[in-house]
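I am writing to request your help with a piece of structural work I have in hand. I am sending you one protein, given as its amino acid sequence and as whole-number tokens for its backbone shapes. Kindly check, if you would, that the fold set down in the tokens agrees with what the sequence suggests. You will find the record immediately after this paragraph:
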Amino acid sequence: MAHPTENAQPDDKQAKTDEYEQHWLEELDRVSYGLRELAAKAEEMRKYIIGRAFETQDWAKFIEEVRKRRDEKKADEKDATLNGKMAEMNLDE
């Protein structure tokens, strides 16, 4: 972006410089505000995640127990299936 003071007269040059600086100060303020907003949202999300982690510790244990019971049930069913197949093989012999 070309600086607006390149082809200006001395009085206009100062006015253009002031306008240019004002423009970029406003942009800086806008970006700074956006970054503060983003930081605030990130902090809210961090607190939410930490809170959910503490809330779900009991849920994690519960889910682990359910999975363990499910795996045990599958193992028992697999054993029953194998025992049934063994019994069928014994009958066939």
Q: What stands out?
A: The chain has two domains: 12-55, 56-93.
